[in-house]
C-alpha cells in the first residue's frame, strides 16, 4: 500500500489509495479475505509439496469452465493441480475470445492477436 501511495499522481488516484487503505484495514479487522486474497493463499498452500500431493490425489480429473476468464493466479493453481495426472479439460466461450486481426497492445508495440507468441 505504501508503495502505491508514493506513486499517486492525481486526485482520483489519491482517493483510490485512501479507499483501498481503508478497505484492507477493514478486511484485517474482520479476519476477512477478498477473492484475490483467496486465490493467492490457495496458491501458496499448493506450493507446499505435501499439500499439492494431497489435492492432486484427491482431484485427479479437472474441468475448468469460463477458461477465457482465467487470471494468472488461477492459471498457476490449475497448472499445479493438473501437473501430476494431466487430466484437464477446459471450456471457453468463443463469443468472448478475440477475433483474428484484433489489435493488441504489447511491450513492443501493437500487434494482431495471431502474431502474439507466449
CATH topology call of the largest domain:
Rossmann fold
**Count of structural domains:** 2
Q: Tell how many strands the DSSP assignment holds.
A: 4
Helix tally equals 5
Biggest beta-sheet profile: 2 strands, parallel
What is the gyration radius calculated from CA atoms? 19 Å
The CATH class of the largest domain is identified as: Alpha Beta
Structural class: mainly alpha
Question: Would you give an account of this structure?
Answer:
- There is one protein chain.
- The chain has five helices and four strands; from the N terminus they run H-H-H-H-E-H-E-E-E.
- It is mainly alpha-helical and 118 residues long.
- The protein has a two-stranded parallel ribbon with strand order 1-2. A two-stranded antiparallel ribbon has the order 3-4.
Short description:
The chain is mainly alpha-helical. The chain has helices at 2-7, 11-29, 35-46, 49-58, 72-82, and strands at 62-64, 88-90, 103-106, 109-112. The radius of gyration is 19 Å and the shape is flat.
What key attributes describe this structure?
2 domains; mainly alpha; Rossmann fold; 118 residues; two-stranded parallel sheet; two-stranded antiparallel ribbon; 12% strand
